Amino acid sequence: MNYAKEPHGVFFFIDNKSFYASCESVVRGLNPLKSIIVVMSEQANTNGGLVLATSPMAKKLYHITNVSRQRDVPHRADILVVPPRMNLYIKMSLKINQIYQEYAAAEDILPYSIDESLLDMTKSWRLFGDSPEAVAKIIQHRIRQEMGLYTTVGIGENPVQAKLALDLYAKHDDQLVGEIKYETVPETIWPITNLTDVWSIGQRTAKRLKRLHINTMAELAHSNPYQLKAEFGIVGYQLFALAWGIDRTSLAEKRSVKEPGFSNSQVLPRDYSKYAEIRVVIKEIGEQVAARIRAHQWLTTKISLGIGFSYAVAQQGERSGFHCTKTIEATNNSHELVCELLSLFDDYWNEEPVRNIAVSFSGLMHDSGEQLSLFQPVKQQLKQTAVDQVVDCIQTEFGITSLVRASSLLPGATMINRASLVGGHNGGNAYD
Predict the structure, then answer these.
(1) What is the DSSP track for 305-359?
(2) pTM: predicted TM-score of the whole model, two decimal places
(3) Number of domains the chain contains
């Protein structure tokens, strides 16, 4: 591989260690690396409570991992179990990214998630230290001093090298810093034998690679890229580049979405078997997404409904749910969209208990006017449009729960309870 033709830069992939648990430790005056804290979602929302984050010490002493259930957490006095406070985590994440902007330009920073950010330090690292590693330690010290949080830093000559350095080495290093360069790919990437340890390779991809007799990163790097393309499509080339530590991404390059769309999904607090209860939630979600496309002045021509069945049904192996799509006349009218969604549900549901519901609208067109129907009185159509506009104005001004349908008070409805959630979890108070 001729690396001379590849872009050479300096990239930092920075992760806030056990972020949710660390934030909870800091606000309690505890050391994030020494505290024993478990952040657990509310029992009512997850049918037993779901572990969202654990402190490093909780992982070490009691082997509690993220996405464990409440039943897996030992009942011990030294384990502090706390509910999530998403507003607090968002506030601290924003402050951390503001600090990053003192070391790199805003256009050279990509918040990858609430606790990870990618920094292109190519043009600025020399302003702050003698080497990229020295600058990484300066940033770590700054975050520790001002925020009380520990960070891990992966350093690479491109974004994918930095990400792999973070996941494979920095998180296990005493200094919490790892580095991969083009010249070190054979000794840093190729020795990986568990493919799922590598970013972007999941269980399904690993199984498909093993069917091609590819079991290690070295074998992936020395496989036939055309065979990978035949098996995975364009992703095959991406996997081949990954094994060679190649990434030509530019953070400053603006990318447009090929097919914009709006969606919302919910994990229900329990298995829903009653037809009326499921319809209420579909209606709530459909109206929420309809309000969003109206706010952005779009009409939709394609609606999709995704239904996930209960765990017990999915384990039986017949089908875990269904996903259906329908092309419709361009509209953003809540009543019309909800009717179409409910019609799809009636066509595909066979009385299985439901646990997940997802709605999406795509095939968007600019809302430049209203197409009247020959099969409905004009006054009735205009009245429905006016009602949607009034509801949108009231909810925008006073909150989504300021005006709700009576159906949202029925058993099974979720909108009122979810209105106070952030990212599906308790928002809490950022200043507690």
Answers:
(1) EEEEE-HHHHHTSS-SEEEEEEEEEEE--HHHHHHHHHHHHHHH--S--EEEEEE
(2) 0.80
(3) 4
> Strand, helix or coil at 72?
helix
What contacts 316, CB < 8 A, 6 or more positions away?
A: none
CATH number at residue 136: 3.30.70.270
Contacts with 212 (C-beta within 8 Å, 6 or more apart), sequence order: 223, 227, 228, 231
Burial class from Cβ neighbours inside 10 Å (0-12, 13-18, 19+) for residue 351 reads: exposed
Q: What is the DSSP letter of 196?
A: G
Catalytically annotated residue among 102, 107, 116, 329: 116
Instruction: Judge whether 423 lies within some domain.
Output: no
- 291 shares a domain with 161: no
pLDDT at 426: 67
**Which range marks the domain in which residue 130 is found?**
3-17+88-187
For the ranges 209-218, 348-357, 388-397, the lowest mean pLDDT is seen at 388-397
The 3-state DSSP composition of the chain as helix, strand, coil percent (nearest 5) reads 45, 20, 35
Contact (Cβ atoms closer than 8 angstroms) between residue 92 and residue 147: yes
pLDDT at 369: 67
183 and 143 in a single domain? The answer is yes
- Alpha-carbon distance of 253 to 248, in angstroms, equals 11
In a domain, 219, yes or no: yes
Per-residue pLDDT tens digits for 183-198: 999 999 999 999 999 9
Counting Cβ atoms within 10 Å, is residue 162 exposed (0-12), middle (13-18) or buried (19+)?
Answer: buried
Active site residue 284: no
User: Looking at the structure, do residues 280 and 340 belong to the same domain, yes or no?
Assistant: yes
Output Rg (C-alpha) for the chain, integer angstroms: 25
- CA end-to-end span of the chain, whole Å? 54
Write the burial class of residue 266 (CB in 10 Å: 0-12 exposed, 13-18 middle, 19+ buried). Answer: buried
Among 20-34, 77-91, 119-133, 411-425, which is the least confidently predicted range?
411-425
